[in-house]
Amino acid sequence: MFELGKLFSHKPDHPMNSVESARRVLQQLERTPALAALTEIAAWADSVAGIDGFACDDRFAIVVEIETGGSRFAAAVLQDYLRHIHRRDQDQRKLFESLHSYWSALAAAYERCVLDHQAGEAGAARFTSHLAIAIARAIRACERAERMRQLRYIGSGAELWESPCRLFAYAEKTRLDHAAIVVYENELHSTIRAELLRMAGMSLAALHELPPEQVELAGRILGRFVTSFSWSAQALPNCNFVLDLAAATPPRQRDPDEALSPTKRYFGGGIALTKLEEIEGLVEKNLLAEEARFGAEFSPAQIVSVIRHLLIYLGPNPPQRRYARTAVTAPVAIIHGFAAISPRVKILDAGSGASIGDELNVEQRQRSDMQLAAETPGAEPEVWTLRDRSEWGLGVEIPQGLGAWAEPGVLCAVRDNDAWWVGIIRSVEASDFGSMHCGLWIMSKRPIATHLRVIGNETDKASNWETTSGGFKYSYMRALLLPDTVKAHDRPVLLIERQAIWIGELCEIMAGEHTRHIRLMELIEEGADYMRVGFAWVAPG
Predict the structure, then answer these.
(1) Would you tell me the crossing angle of helices 192-204 and 131-151 to the nearest 10 degrees?
(2) 458 Cβ partners below 8 Å, 6+ apart?
């Protein structure tokens, strides 16, 4: 039916002043390389968001057309970015900037539709039926833009939460905040509240402690379970986080003694935590269906690692810093990778005459059997700047041009006088200008390098695998014993080179005349080239 109001409406002087004109412009980009096309589409979205004169419904329809045209290019650019996710060169920066600009502009364009509706601009009544979708898509685009910054470990600006809080407050006013909607075709039902909670969960989850591919995985996992978060306008016991819509500040852990406010919203992990634990159990047992694995590019170990991380930081008692930091400025030598670390720490060789106790204490007949290996040529340490330290943590600045490999989860070692301490990069914070700060967790100040011989399991021991030549075939792997590290579920912990292992496998520590057997009990963490494993001692015989 023809609408009389449209007869006298004036279109703005803009190349995309209708869906048809937007479609023509976008069609001209069909053969343009994805990166260049996405950069241009981001500019178009930004201009549509900024120009006056559009009716609410017209602007919304054009923004939808822009997103439809840009989605294919955005997917291709994101895939390229994730394919080279560990690089931090100029090419990768261009991919980041294009994606961040696209989602930021898209968020602004959808928000402009909402703000015009709120102001009663032309076409507001016709746009009302699309209002919930516009708000949800605006918040989703804000979250996607922020996720790109998290993938680069760039801190968020103070203005980050202004738009999501403003949009959600209007959704509450129009009673759309918890209405079930399909934000995009082929997606499950969501709500505006769930879109806000996904962004809140990403903000609270200490993603600067995860490797970049796991940051992306965390977003996908949260997207599936945020509808099960608890939520209230009251400070209920199961809502241990708070978001102030009026202050537009990031969500935070709720102080039990803080004053209540009508603009504060309280939330917590709720039954989503239970569901995450169920998924963790299915993954560990290899029972999670292929279509439910959040993407073929993620391994079961990565899924388990991220779920455990989310359970910790979104649970009822998120971790707090345990050790005080002392400011200090000094150069510090650092190396990374299992292959570079093993030759530098104390080495325990087979035939050394040493014995290992249940607490990983090493007894030796000859002190010379335990030695510090010479540093291997061609693997010189980098020198970073130590800024602060605690008993088991270091804060360091990475000089320009160094640390291209530095990201959360990387195994490294720092030199303290003549000894090497083994640790993991636990957090990375970068600036727009390229400087980087790293937080290191020191796992052991007395690491010992050795080898494990894989024996097998109770029913299939390697000693039963006779080769055609009449001998026996074993597999070996390098390991780092960590006598002073924190136990996992009351089990001692060691590091092994990353490879295919089976939980429950029996191994022999190659330690001189007094051999010890262990059973691998739990995969705690998987890094780029290492696995942190909890084990149990196996009694002789």
Answers:
(1) 10
(2) 506
Tokens linked to 128: 């009302």
Closest CA to 498 of 536, 534, 528, 456: 528
- Return the closest-CA partner of residue 412 out of 426, 399, 398, 400: 426
As a 3-state breakdown, the chain gives helix, strand, coil percent values, each rounded to 5, of 35, 25, 40
Q: What is the CA radius of gyration of the chain?
A: 28
Q: Map 459-518 to HEC letters.
A: CEEHHHCECCCCCECCEEEEEEECCCCCCECCECEEEEECCCCCCCCEEEECCCCCCEEE
Nearest residue to 485 (alpha-carbon basis) of 422, 426, 398, 535: 422
Quick one: pLDDT at residue 502?
Answer: 76
Domain spans of the chain, in order of start: 1-153
8 A C-beta contact, residue 376 and residue 343: yes
Other residues' Cβ atoms within 10 Å of the Cβ of residue 274: 12
Residue 396, helix vs strand vs coil: strand
Per DSSP, the three-state class of 422 is strand
- Which pLDDT value is given to residue 1? 39
Please calculate the CA angle 56-60-64 and round it to the nearest 5 degrees.
175
Strand order in the sheet with 264-268: 230-232, 264-268, 241-244, 252-253
Amino acid at 166: R
- Averaged over successive runs of 10 residues, the pLDDT of the chain (541 residues) comes to 48 90 95 96 96 95 97 96 86 94 98 97 96 98 94 81 97 96 91 96 91 90 93 94 94 91 96 94 81 81 90 89 78 92 80 64 51 50 92 91 87 89 90 78 91 71 42 73 86 87 82 77 83 86 58
